[in-house]
Amino acid sequence: MPGPIGLLIWFLGTALELSFVVCSLARKSFLHYLFLNLYMLFSLVGSISRFLVLRNFGQDSDEYMYCYYYTDLVLTLALFVAVISLYSRVLGELKLKQFMNLVAGLLLLGTTIFSYAVVDHSSGRLSTALAFELSQNLYFVGLILTYILWGAVMKLRETRTRVVQFVLSLGLYFSAYAAVYALVNMSKAVGNVQYITPILGCLLPLSWTLTMVRHSEESRLATAQLVAVQR
Amino acid sequence: MMAALIFVVSLATLFMFFISYCRSMVASAAQHELSEEVRDVTGINPVASARDYDRVMQLMQLCPENPDDRSRLRAVDLYFSFLKMGQQIFRRMVPSMKSWTEHEQASCAYYAAVALDRRISFNREMLAQQSEP
Questions:
Q1: Total domains, chain A
Q2: CB nearest to B19's CB, from A179, A221, A228
Q3: Which residue of B has its CA nearest to A133?
Q4: The pLDDT of residue A124
Q5: CB spacing of B14 vs A182 below 8 angstroms
Q6: ipTM of the complex
Q7: Domain locations in chain B?
Q8: Per the domain annotation, does A230 fall within a domain?
Q9: A176 contacts in chain B (CB < 8 Å)
Q10: Has residue A209 been placed in a domain?
Q11: What is the pTM of this model?
């Protein structure tokens, strides 16, 4: 079982995920941001199942390892879909929805093939290695997609405060996660970052919940003020 | 090699998104007009400067907290410290960065003044509610 700090972070993260869904329902935005809410619900189920497996089998068990990496993979895929849903929202007026879905599908397929090619020659359990490699690569693809989405937000002068804040929070989350995953992959020192990933996991539901609470769907923001160098 | 590349790119985008996120928070306060008493007490009339920030934050500590602005103020305070650090490190290498960081710090000062204004209004409302029979 994790120590009190680990448990506290877990409880906080789970409560924040739940609070985002509750806030969305309370502000009548659940269907409006359906895929963001679905991601949070998946995350909630993932957190609880990880906790149950951890309590029954222990942190060093194979069961926990499988549960951790597979739920992580499912969550990464759900987040990937959430990013695509934000693309549809930002590019909605350009009628590029079908094109976006095709690109997202190809990216997902490409990333899976690439990850398989990387782990194919490695020793040990192929499926767990693939889950880890695919998660890392999908986080990085998610980061690139969010970066492009941010570019689209700026270019198209998206003014909806909620959309802008959701995209920025996602960008921060993906960047931090991809960096931590890469660091772990480079050093293989998983123990050193045992608290970092759960803390990062709390930041996304926290910032999304704050956005949902503080801004209504009608709130607007001048994107020109967000450009680092004023033109 | 791949992991190292991902690490470097991720750090660069983390930095970029952090700045944009802080700017989005600061920008949300730009349209708020300060009350006359806050303008008098902070000396911000009408444009804030980087030097106003510390004074506004000191004034903020005299005013009871508003739970709504705590996390945002912390993020803006972190952004301000980050700008200050960047200014000290890069002022010789990139002289043009000085005016940019000063402009950003001034925006942070204005954001803090708006938060102070909101805190005063919030506390007034609380006081009014308590004094009601």
A1: 1
A2: A228
A3: B3
A4: 59
A5: no
A6: 0.75
A7: 2-131
A8: no
A9: 10, 14
A10: yes
A11: 0.81
Domain of residue A201, residue span: 4-220
pLDDT at site A231:
41
Q: How far apart are CA B29 and CA B43, in angstroms?
A: 17
Beta bridge partners of A160: A220
Residue A19 in any domain: the answer is yes
- Residue A107 inside a domain? The answer is yes
Three-state SS letters, chain A = CCCHHHHHHHHHHHHHHHHHHHHHHHCCCCCCCHHHHHHHHHHHHHHHHHHHHHHHHCCCCHHHHHHHHHHHHHHHHHHHHHHHHHHHHHCHHHCCHHHHHHHHHHHHHHHHHHHHHHHCCCCCCHHHHHHHHHHHHHHHHHHHHHHHHHHHHHHCCCCEHHHHHHHHHHHHHHHHHHHHHHHHHHHCCHHHHCCHHHHHHHHHHHHHHHHHHHCCCCCECCHHHHCCCCC
pLDDT at A103: 81
Contact: B10, A186; criterion CB under 8 Å: no
The per-residue pLDDT for A1 is: 63
Please say whether the dihedral angle defined by the alpha carbons of residues A192, A194, A200 and A203, taken in this order, is positive or negative: negative
User: Using one digit for the tens of pLDDT, what is the confidence trace for B84-122?
Assistant: 888 888 877 777 788 888 888 999 999 999 999 988 988
What's the confidence (pLDDT) of residue A223?
65
pLDDT along chain A (231 residues), means of 10: 81 93 94 94 92 88 85 85 88 75 81 74 65 75 86 86 91 86 72 74 90 86 60 41
What is the CATH classification number for the domain harbouring A8? 1.20.1070.10
| CB pair distance less than 8 Å for B6 and A221 | no
